[in-house]
């Protein structure tokens, strides 16, 4: 295969995820509900909210969304437009803006209706912070990082960096669940708010930790977590200059987000926020192109659900070829500039 053939294959469209419907045997108790924590940032509902709603809808009960933060009322109006949300509860206060678990978890416990059967959140930094603390407050065991709902009490989740796919059953009366964003299709957003919006209770929880400052990485490129195409670079690129000078022009030419292996991040080629894998981000774009990445299991844990995996590696025995849909055995220093030039044309 040459670079042009690889290019043709990698740009092929892949099948989208199916929208799950409420499962047979799903809860339909008259007053029961599923409570969905919807992540916001700077007054903007995060795209993950739509995936969490899809997961919540499969459980069959009415879906109550929850948002908190400085501009929570405006965020609630955005959330009320998501198809499948029946009601949104909001708490408008700067104290909850950063989703600090010490104050956010008791706030959720206070606002989740008594009859809530499930509390869901995305398996992001936010969800991974808040949910364990909430589980401790409610004295229940959490089910983390689910990729499918088999029934209202049975869920599928990866373990050991995705080497085992476990089906787990929870006997808790209230099930606390974090949802892998990429495993659930985003619910559609309507043009007008369809759900009821209600102000929640705020007992002014004060946590023991104070938010001081943050330094988010700023980039004009598509966001790695939500990009439909990702070009990811590894140690094979050999330097930051090559990462910036070869990989980024290729990603730009493809309209793709940029990712990196941990070795590339640890060597200073790329920012930590770009790391894909077990200890980085989990992505599942339509297309994931690995350049100079060997395919360690910890990297695969973050990208192997991508619809099409394409590879450029000079070693034909590199493990990454075992998960690749298309691969090019070539020196990346020749193949990448050639592909970029062809795409720019
Ligand atoms: C607890 C734990 C958590 C981890 N979490 C992560 C994680 O989240 N993400 C992650 O990525 N890793 C993670 N790792 C590290 C992981 O085990 C690997 O070390 C890492 O993924 C290797 O990165 P790499 O593929 O870029 O580098 P390497 O394994 O060194 O591979 C470089 C590849 O580039 C190819 N190459 C070299 N030169 C060229 C060239 N000129 N042209 C084409 N190909 C070339 C080589 O053939 C090789 O296959 C974790 C490890 C541990 C122990």
Automatic annotation (TrEMBL):
Alphabetically list the UniProt keywords.
Answer: Electron transport, FAD, Flavoprotein, Mitochondrion, Transport
InterPro entries xref list: DHS-like_NAD/FAD-binding_dom, ETF_a/b_N, ETF_a/FixB, ETF_alpha_N, ETF_asu_C, Rossmann-like_a/b/a_fold
The cofactor remark states: Binds 1 FAD per dimer.
Subcellular localization(s) per the UniProt record: Mitochondrion matrix
Keyword Mitochondrion attributed: yes
Listed GO CC annotations: mitochondrial matrix
Its needed co-factors are:
FAD
A Gene Ontology biological process in which this protein takes part is: fatty acid beta-oxidation using acyl-CoA dehydrogenase
Q: Does the keyword Electron transport apply?
A: yes
In this protein, which residues make up the domain named Electron transfer flavoprotein alpha/beta-subunit N-terminal? 34-215
Which molecular function GO terms apply here?
A: electron transfer activity; flavin adenine dinucleotide binding
Pfam families in the cross-refs: ETF, ETF_alpha
Say what the protein does.
The electron transfer flavoprotein serves as a specific electron acceptor for several dehydrogenases, including five acyl-CoA dehydrogenases, glutaryl-CoA and sarcosine dehydrogenase. It transfers the electrons to the main mitochondrial respiratory chain via ETF-ubiquinone oxidoreductase (ETF dehydrogenase).
Which protein family is named in the record? Answer: Belongs to the ETF alpha-subunit/FixB family.
- What's the protein called, per UniProt? Probable electron transfer flavoprotein subunit alpha
Gene name on record?
ETF1
